[in-house]
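Backbone shapes recur. Consider a single case.
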Amino acid sequence: MTITAFAAGTYRFDRQSASLVSMKNQLDGLAQQLSTGRTAETYGGLGVARTTSLSAHAAISAQDGYLAAIGSAETRVKLTSASLTQLKALSDSTRSNLTGIVATRNEKLPSATVQLAANNLSAAVDALNQQAAGVYVFSGRATETAPVVSDQAILDGIPAEGLDGLRTLIAEQKKADLGPSGNGRLTQSVGTRTIGLSEDSSAEARANFGFTIMAASSSNSATLGANVVAGSKPDVALRFTEQPAEGAQVRVVVQLADGSQTTLDLTARAGEAGNAAGAFSIGATKEETAANLKRALGGADIASVQSASPPGVAADFSNGQAATATLTVSSNPAPGDTITLKLGMHDGTTKSITLTAAATAGADSATAFAIGATPEETTANLSRTLQNALTTAANTELSASSAGRASLNFFEGSPAAGLSPRRVAVDGNGYAETASAKTVIWYKGDTASDPRATATVQAGTSRTVEIGAQANEEAIRRTLAGIAAMAAENFTTGTGTVDTARFEAVSSRAANLLTAGTSQQSLEQIGTDFGLAASSMANAKSVANTTKATLQDSLDGVDTVSTEEVAAKLLSLQTQLQASYKVTSILSEMSLVNYLR
């Protein structure tokens, strides 16, 4: 019988050694898995499962990215929503205060209202200048720029830089509206038994300033006559001093059917882009471009134009007829007979003046005229009362209209070239056509046409949430204009009395600015946008977390191992290895001599 040797270098020894080394490696691998909980330390160690692991990890990384973006955006949206809520509260506070004081007619409270409005304006500026992680949330894409200048700069300008504020613009507007006679730019004449009233002779002035004559009526046409001859619209021709460049902007103010005005900003574009909304085509010549601009207005009645220079837009007013009113005294009226004159203003509001015949009336009366001994004397008395009434209306209702219009105009100012607030021309008959560089531009942020799109969040593979905001949005502009119109005023006269009539008139205009119309954007609408954005992000966050959890679960058994299963394998292998070591040790000591022993 032959006994095969079990010694180094023999086949049996080498095979047994290889088996021991293999088990030792397996033991080390299982020990590593037990300590780390991972299947392998490299993707190569996963074998065919590495593709599944790589794909799942990439997807998890994407979900982590979405969650991080959403987390950052949620803070921004919450801050923006809080600022909008604050603005709404300030608007409501100002409006309710105005309504309450006007109702009580307490002469001591207008000054307190002005101070409240000033405080609210300061708070509104602070709300709009909020930052989230160093980003100004109401600046659109200009995230490093505070969007709104200080409330002091808004009201009083920056004298050191030669920049005028809202108070200066209101004063200019009042002067232009009241006219040289202080009666709303109306020309009054008196004859033997007739009184004539005519609008301003300048077509451009009629389009922008003063009263418009709308109607007149008499309660007793047998003694008092009232007749109005309606005016006619002027022809307005547009021209450019130079051909506009691509992207040049022009501001055009047009008349609306109710007598108010609206501002349109149009951009010069080449080719087909010029046919888009808010644009006009650049023609082969500057004359053709001017014709294209007028065509883009769709036949709207032009009140004023403005641009940078170049291109230097201009409007030439010609023809047109001023409206006139004629009041006659055929014979002496009876006490209580009335004449009513209806006047319009360029904010769309109207003022009715009713003059009543009385046996006696003071020379300074703005409501009653004395019945004289003759119709001629009565005519003179009626003319004097009419003059008083027009001056009173101009200094109350028309002055309030000026404040509201100037405030709205101021907050339409933009940092874009050519779009600064309108300023009254040197001759006082219209607005300057070249944008002024001497007015504070209250807004310093982005001027994108779609504020929401200025900041977006990638909340999923195919889900983008828009969270941008700009302080120059219509609802915010009108809110600031309403608050600032009150803050800029002073209702105490030089004698120390309170001008309650003008206070009530300005309060009405300010309250109107603080109340969004049916076709106007409101603060609630902006707030709704951000509420929807928050809801969309919350939904996307839930989806991302669920997706991430599902992907992580799919990696169980691929990237990770069961510690219980590994421990069992480890103990089993350890037992096998110990047994193999024992057998190997016995075999290595086996020889014929030892066997014979």
